[in-house]
Specification:
The chain is an alpha/beta fold and about 290 residues long. It contains eleven helices and twelve strands.
Amino acid sequence: MSSFGVLPPWLVLDPLLRGWLLEDIGRGDRTTNTLLVEDVTLGSAKWIAKAPGITAGLPIAARVFQILNEKVRFTAVAAEGKWCESGQVVAEIHGSLDALLMGERVALNLVMRLSGIATLTNIYVEKIADLPAQLVDTRKTTPGLRLLEKYATAVGGAINHRMGLDDAVMIKDNHIAAAGGIEKAVTRIRSQIPYPLTIEVETESLEQVKEALKHNVDIIMLDNMPVDIMREAVQLIRERNSRVKIEASGNVTLETIRSVAETGVDYISSSAPITQSKWLDMSMRIALYTLDK
């Protein structure tokens, strides 16, 4: 079962959508503008899924068409975040034919990309659905698409990790090396960050876990640990400070995610649902066109 992500307001998304439309249209759609030169032509179209999966991004597609012509009606036939089958009608669109033709590629590209992410995310989520651990995404996203790709993972049932570097403090291995150790890194950062930002520390050994606990961090990441060591680390953290959240990360696959979840961690972060997903193929078919008198 997939869940629903929350889209940012159109105030945030519209500049992105307009930019992508401008990238595709350039100085004008030579084909459409030449073909439809006199009367306004109204068209109807259907979007058809060419592979099974979870749909994501349909409200975004509607907005793409409405930026081109606010009178376009985009009706989602498949529910956002629900499974659709190959051959199923996903959406029906009616409006100015030039808007339908010019918006087709941008709208389809976004929905196919986001639906692919939501589909693979949901497969990962279902692997651990009966366990307390929750899947979270990462910052390994396509530049310019982070807001939408993370929306798609939420539609697929995952939880969003921080959107950017300003959301929370995550002290990783390179930060620890730059600071000269976990103690120095945590102490320096804690004295300067605003309330209520949390502090997470990436650890690679039980000794680092103990040091992170000593400095009362909010979240401890167990990075690339063997499952037996991870289980020992979880037990150690639970015994010393039950309020600390535990995140597992590193080379999480469909084959390993369940064994990681069974160690008792709270969260499992993985870039795979975004970086390894395939687009969910869809096509648009014009069903009817009439001259608007």
